[in-house]
Amino acid sequence: MCTVCGCGAGEGAPAAQHQAGLHEGDDPHRHSHAPGVSERRRVQVEQDILSKNDRFAAQNRARFEAQSLFVLNLVSSPGSGKTSLLTRTIERLGGRMPLAVIEGDQQTDNDAEKIRATGVPAVQINTGKGCHLDAHRVGHALEQLEPLPGGVLFIENVGNLVCPAAFDLGEAHKVVILSVTEGEDKPLKYPDMFHAADLMLLNKIDLLPYVDFDLQRCIEYARRINPEIQVVQLSARDGTGMDEWVHWLEAARSERIRQRIGALQAQARALQALLGEEAI
Amino acid sequence: MHEMSIAEGIVQLLEEQAVSQHFQRVKTLWLELGPLALVETEALRFCFEAVARHTLAEGARLEIVELPGEARCLDCNARVAVTTRYSACPGCGSYRLQLLRGDELRIKELEVE
Q1: In this predicted structure, what is the pLDDT of residue A31?
Q2: Which residues from B are below 8 Å from A16, CB to CB?
Q3: Where are the domains of chain B?
Q4: What is the CATH code of the structural domain delimited by B3-68+102-112?
Q5: For the sheet containing A41-48, what is the strand order?
Q6: pLDDT of A72-131, one tens digit each?
Q7: N vs C: which end of chain B shows fewer Cβ within 10 Å?
């Protein structure tokens, strides 16, 4: 360890300092301060704290784009029926496009097992003490999946309506699932998640006759938080509303592909212009 | 709950900054925090102190600069102050507010040596 400033590899201070040449040369203390003298100064940083996650998310997004993979980040509280909804969704989409799932849970491989039973590849991420998936871990999970050109990847986040809202994974959309056995005021209680989501799936509506859940009020609360949020009411159990959800998914995927085509065409035109050619 | 990850993110950014801006210790850091940044200030202080131990930021003072939240009402077009995601427009009562600022979570400045 450097006895002057306390830095050194393995001591918690950045080992990269040594590679960056701060300790280069014969004298290990050529860097900015003399022994016993501290030079305090201010440095401007202006950096978003989540920028590191956002960089990984941008890398994921570029990988998804390169293989025209449509990615949804499914978020909810525990017990909303995410995994059942996924297995039923997979049954409906199966054979039409390649599918894969990344499962996030604090512990166990149970959910990935349920998905694999449908014949679709699934990677389980155990976050251990962590309460959310981050873009870095998702990037490593991707390495375990075969490429899925033109496919759909579902990322089932850790059951938690708070933290996953803050972490972009590179997905096309966050989809929040709320079941009618929960309180209709959840959009107000956990506003950040409903603000971050583009679609709210109201699940378990087959149980509406047995619970005091005010559907219209729930939707009104969600729109207070996010005026643009779309809503589909469904029951993964009896199949009500599943067609509408699958239709939303296919339409959103098509829209994404169209955007990609537009971007590639613009790129092609720019390249043709370099050759002095007319656009096709 | 995710304040621990955020604290870890702060220390990683400080380590990157130490390389690019050539410093060894962080004595003070100023964080800019909007009211909608999804961060509980006291939890963040607690986590930062724990995560910073044995790093270049051990014992660093955390100064939190609270920024205001501001939104535009999509119905009456007024610019209004907001502190929550479920605020209504004080002018017309609409909930259709588009956030302009207030979700910042940024390291602004450091005092280093």
Answers
A1: 47
A2: 15, 19
A3: 3-68+102-112
A4: 3.30.2320.50
A5: A41-48, B105-112, B26-33, B61-66
A6: 999 999 999 999 999 999 999 988 999 999 999 888 888 999 999 999 999 999 888 778
A7: N
